[in-house]
Amino acid sequence: MTKILVTVVFVLVGGSLGYNFLPYVWALITSVPRIINNPITNMVLGAIVLYFLSVPATDYVERAIVKVENFLSDLSASYLLFGSLGMIIGLILSWLINLSLVGLQIPGFSDVLPIITTAMLAYLGFRLATSRREEIRRVIIGRGNPKEEDGGVLERKVQDNFRRNKILDTSVIIDGRIYDIVQTGFLEGSLIIPNFVLRELQHIADSSDSIKRVRGRRGLDILNSLQKEEGLTVEMYDGDVEEADEVDEKLVVLAKKMDGMVVTNDYNLNKVCEFQNVPVLNVNDLANAIKPVVIPGEEMHVMIIKQGTERSQGVAYLDDGTMVVVEDGQHYMNKSIDVVVTSALQTSAGRMIFARPVHSSKKLKEKE
């Protein structure tokens, strides 16, 4: 369809050019029959010439149109609206100014300066309207000056590091904790569910593996719960990211396009986002941040449930899932003992606590 429209435009432009300029060309040639030098023939000849020129040029024009469409689709509606209004106001002002400039009838000055004035005022109108659109919006809806109306309390200014769009990946949806986080109100902006993430969830839910099938259905249930949550904006991104093949790559590219943040609990995706300077919110980081701080020397009561990787080590888990590696804990398998913390290691993948039995620490002190 685009190629047909481009060809039609070329033909119409060619007919117009032929009608207006071919008579001057024929005037340079003394002996031109009347059947050739007439308006209809000129239009047909111009249209034919531009038609043949459109054949090689259509692909280039179509690619340019696609690039412009992609560029405009990345811009917000308010940006385009206020930018267009600002440009129109700039063009109106330039027209008023150019009336006086043209009336001066100064050779060169009256011809060139109006063009410069029009371009400058149109650009300034666009830039001013887009950079001050929040203030203009407040004036239009009648909120006036918040400092005067609210007793000197100014509205929070959105900082440059604020990202409105939070793009969820598959792992964080299946994990389910995102729903609890949303209910607490810690996430601002809109939650974006890409179409390729939804397809991956559906594929997991239809898997022949019972464990994967349960995980996939849990993810779909979480999405339905998020959709029904009041005061929360959940949007679907129906487009696809042709620049990438894998879901994680698509998420990174989409976050760059939408100027958004990736929400995940995938350790590897977290590192990829950091490497490509894409803002990322890791649910595991949040969980680790709100866990109680464990100080070396603190005592706790744990149950050894399995052997560790090193000799004589035992492994226990706290209620929040934190792994506790106990030295000489293998001798207390399936028993609850008191341990004292020696050190703690915290990463994006989780937190690990190292400890030893309390009685062994007491023996060391007695020896000292």
Structure characterization notes:
With 368 residues, the chain is of the alpha/beta class. It has four domains: 1-74, no CATH class; 77-155, no CATH class; 165-288, Rossmann fold; 292-367, Nucleic acid-binding proteins (OB fold (Dihydrolipoamide Acetyltransferase, E2P)). Helices cover 56% and strands 15% of the residues. The chain is built from 14 helices and eleven strands. The protein has helices spanning 2-28, 39-74, 77-103, 109-131, 133-140, 146-149, 170-175, 177-184, 195-205, 210-228, 247-258, 267-275, 283-289, 358-367, and strands at residues 165-168, 190-194, 233-237, 261-264, 280-282, 299-303, 306-307, 314-317, 323-326, 336-347, 350-357. It has a six-stranded mixed β-sheet. A five-stranded parallel β-sheet has the order 3-2-1-4-5. The radius of gyration is 34 Å and the shape is elongated.
List keywords for this structure.
single chain, 368 residues, alpha/beta, Rossmann fold, 4 domains, 6-stranded mixed sheet, 5-stranded parallel sheet, 14 helices, 11 strands, disordered C terminus
